[in-house]
Design a protein that fits this description.
Layout lengths: L4 H5 L9 E6 L3 H13 L6 E7 L3 E3 L4 H5 L9 E3 H5 L5 E4 L2 E5 L4 E4 L3 E3 L2 E4 L3 E3 L12 E2 L3 H20 L3 H7 L1 E5 L3 H22 L9 E5 L11 H14 L2 E3 L4 E5 L2 E4 L5 E2 L2 E4 L3 E3 L1 H4 L11 E2 L12 E3 L4 E2 L1 E2 L4 E2 L4 H19 L13 E5 L5 E5 L2 E5 H13 L4 H16 L11 H8 L10
Parallel strand pairs: 1-2, 1-9, 2-5, 9-21, 11-18, 12-13, 12-18, 13-14, 20-22
Antiparallel strand pairs: 3-4, 6-7, 7-8, 10-19, 15-16, 16-17, 23-24, 25-26, 26-27
The structure holds flavin-adenine dinucleotide.
Flavin-adenine dinucleotide (FAD) binds next to helix 2, strand 2, helix 7 and helix 10.
Length: 451
């Protein structure tokens, strides 16, 4: 074990070396770990806490679909980490992590190499195409703010295209919107696209586009959507999607998407210019290539304390952690809820290790889940309690907005979302950087899935 804070302060006249905690990732796991660490170690100024992230903001992913469909301004869900850390002693280092050297206890970013005494891995996950990349031409994903802005712009452009288009086939491809993946992200996005297209965009383009021309399709490979919810709620969600007019293809396996044609095994091809891939996530190669005990998905196996099973002083939280739920005998799901709860325990245990106190074991009962399905409707399932409809939707918003770190944005988001019930959403394109714009505008060209 490396020196504890008390050891290093007891070295007499030698300059005292700070005890360095490096947290990789400022998402749900990393940001909250750092904030709790600062709290638990507030009387130990000689401990340095540094958070490294490629972005200078914490992204509130549960509301990303609202940004992709004009309901929330991008910055309301992207909060500056420097603002969040301003009144703490946490340092932020903004830069891409390129390498993690566990043997020499260092992390390299594009800018510098930093040493650590304790390391927290919380780099999240990336889109999993299940080996389909080469067969998906210009598919969208929804993982980042840029993805959300690109989807938003593309939806508007498809209406612009259809507005003047006379060829019925081209028109139909422009006005058909496909989301692949029947988990919460896919269901929520399909619901929001449906609402955005049918309520908002149709108001702007209604002179030359009819409601009957708009198709929103949700494609799911298994026999049911939302497998993490109880079966009766999955069924209710399915009914709801169909009722508002979304076509749901169950047990539908996508075999390719090229030249604006979606191929599904055993079904007729569908012409569409919009396909969003929301079918799953996988561990980033940076994490899954580390010489640590891993599960088949590449996530790092941890002890109950959230320290790596195979290496001391390396802690793992959020999507990177393979942590067994003792109540269910299977790993905790990769959700924000899990990440935030793990962050608190990991921070506690790191502080306990430094201060030589007993450590805690992570365990929690999953409280349940929310899923919003367009038109101000959400399903809530928590323990024995279920709720749906507009009441569920209000609760969905209150819970999520309350979790935004910066209070100012909580207020903006509350106003924004509640005003959307009575007023219109934004139908303006969001400016993106030039290269991205270029590839987005040339959506008809060749290439593979965007990331
Ligand atoms: C669209 C969408 C909707 C979701 N909705 C919900 C929901 O409603 N409820 C729920 O519980 N969960 C939801 N999730 C899942 C949730 O976002 C994740 O489970 C959670 O973010 C995991 O936390 P994390 O800290 O492991 O990773 P993240 O929050 O993703 O944080 C990882 C951080 O690491 C940074 N990073 C990654 N690689 C590098 C690198 N090489 N160098 C530097 N920085 C790097 C990233 O920029 C990011 O800030 C949703 C996810 C998505 C994509």
């Amino acid at each position: 074990m490396s020196a504890s804070v008390s050891d290093s302060t007891a070295r007499g006249t030698e300059p005292v070396r700070p005890y360095r905690i490096l947290v990789l990732g400022a998402g749900f796991g990393g940001l909250y770990t750092a904030v709790y660490l600062a709290r638990y170690l507030r009387n130990h100024p000689n401990v340095w806490i540094t958070v490294i992230d490629r972005r200078n903001y914490f992204l509130f992913t549960p509301m990303l679909h609202s940004t992709a469909t004009g309901a929330l301004e991008p910055r309301y869900i992207a909060h500056s980490v420097r603002k969040i850390f301003r009144k703490t002693r946490i340092h932020a280092h903004i830069g891409e992590v390129l390498g993690i050297d566990l043997e020499n206890r260092s992390v390299s970013t594009v800018h510098r190499t930093m040493q650590f005494d304790e390391l927290v891995l919380s780099l999240g996950s990336e889109t999993n195409f299940y080996g389909m990349e080469a067969r998906l031409e210009n598919a969208f994903t929804l993982k980042s703010l840029k993805d959300a802005a690109a989807i938003n712009n593309h939806l508007i452009r498809m209406f612009e295209k259809a507005y003047w288009e006379e060829d019925p086939q081209v028109r139909s491809a422009a006005l058909t919107f496909v989301v692949v993946g029947g988990g919460p992200t896919g269901v929520e996005l399909a619901g929001e696209i449906h609402e955005y297209a049918n309520r908002e965009l149709l108001r702007d383009f209604g002179r030359r586009i009819r409601k009957e021309e708009i198709r929103v399709i949700l494609v799911e490979a298994t026999r049911r959507i939302l497998p993490s919810l109880p079966e009766n709620l999955s069924d209710e969600a399915l009914e709801r999607l169909k009722k508002i007019g979304i076509e749901v293809f169950l047990e539908a396996r996508l075999s390719g998407y090229r030249n604006h044609v979606m191929e599904i095994e055993g079904r007729l091809p569908v012409r569409t210019e919009t396909l969003v891939w929301a079918a799953g996530v996988r561990t980033s190669p940076l994490i899954s290539s580390l010489p640590l005990a891993r599960d088949p998905q590449g996530r790092i196996k941890v002890k109950g304390t959230l320290e790596s099973l195979s290496m001391d002083h390396v802690w793992v939280v959020g999507d990177n952690a393979s942590c067994l739920n003792p109540y269910e005998g299977k790993p905790y799901p990769p959700t924000a809820q899990t990440a935030v709860r793990q962050a608190k325990v990991a921070a506690y245990n790191i502080a306990a290790r430094i201060l030589r106190k007993p450590e805690k074991i992570f365990s929690h009962h999953h409280i349940g889940g929310f899923v919003s399905i367009g038109n101000n409707y959400a399903l809530l399932s928590a323990k024995q309690f279920t709720l749906s409809g507009i009441l569920g939707w209000f609760l969905w918003n209150l819970v999520y907005i309350h979790k935004l770190p910066i209070i100012r944005y909580r207020l903006f988001s509350t106003f924004g979302l509640f005003l959307k019930v009575f007023f219109e959403r934004a139908t303006t394109e969001i400016d993106l950087c030039p290269e991205y714009e270029e590839s987005s505008r040339n959506a008809a060209g060749s290439g593979s899935a965007r990331e």
